[in-house]
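From the methods appendix. Each design record in this collection lists the tokenized structure first, followed by the designed amino acid sequence. Records were kept in a plain field format so they could be parsed without special tools. The example shown here is representative of the layout used throughout.

RECORD:
FOLD TOKENS (165 positions):
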């Protein structure tokens, strides 16, 4: 029985646009992760300690416990690298898009652009509810809904699936 994604057909423009979106987001996340790994002084502590909004206590709590902060930092760095690489290569891209959307949701919830909140985290402009993190998260959901890696990517090879037919 075939995968539901193999039944999806796209026009050339749709496929090109979706693959470009997948690869651009993949590059962005991969680069962010590598930059964090290569910086021996990088930590998410400042971002977490500056958290505001309904989940601020939880995020600040993560930053105040060195053991939890170490786990958060490692998950952040390597999550960005692995999700970014998977999207770029089209390898398990639907799972990568889902995990990427969850990761970006956590970033958004840590410092949501809400009325009355003044963030200590530098931003590129003034936002109200919608910022680049939310936009990229929704773009990940688009990639999840309209997968392309079965056409252009390593998922096309199905090298990790066992076929017992």
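DESIGN:
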């Amino acid at each position: 029985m075939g995968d539901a994604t193999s039944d999806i057909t796209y026009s050339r423009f749709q496929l090109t646009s979706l693959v470009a979106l997948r690869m651009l987001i993949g590059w962005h996340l991969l680069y962010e992760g590598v930059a964090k790994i290569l910086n021996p002084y990088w930590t998410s502590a400042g971002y977490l300690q500056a958290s505001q909004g309904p989940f601020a206590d939880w995020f600040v709590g993560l930053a105040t416990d060195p053991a939890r902060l170490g786990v958060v930092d490692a998950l952040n760095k390597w999550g960005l690298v692995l999700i970014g690489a998977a999207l770029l290569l089209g390898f398990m891209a639907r799972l990568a898009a889902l995990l990427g959307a969850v990761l970006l949701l956590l970033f958004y919830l840590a410092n949501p652009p809400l009325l009355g909140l003044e963030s200590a985290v530098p931003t590129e402009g003034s936002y109200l509810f919608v910022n680049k993190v939310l936009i990229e998260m929704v773009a990940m959901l688009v990639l999840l809904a309209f997968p392309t890696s079965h056409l252009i990517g390593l998922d096309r090879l199905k090298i990790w699936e066992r076929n017992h037919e």
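APPENDIX NOTE: The chain has one domain: 26-116+123-156.
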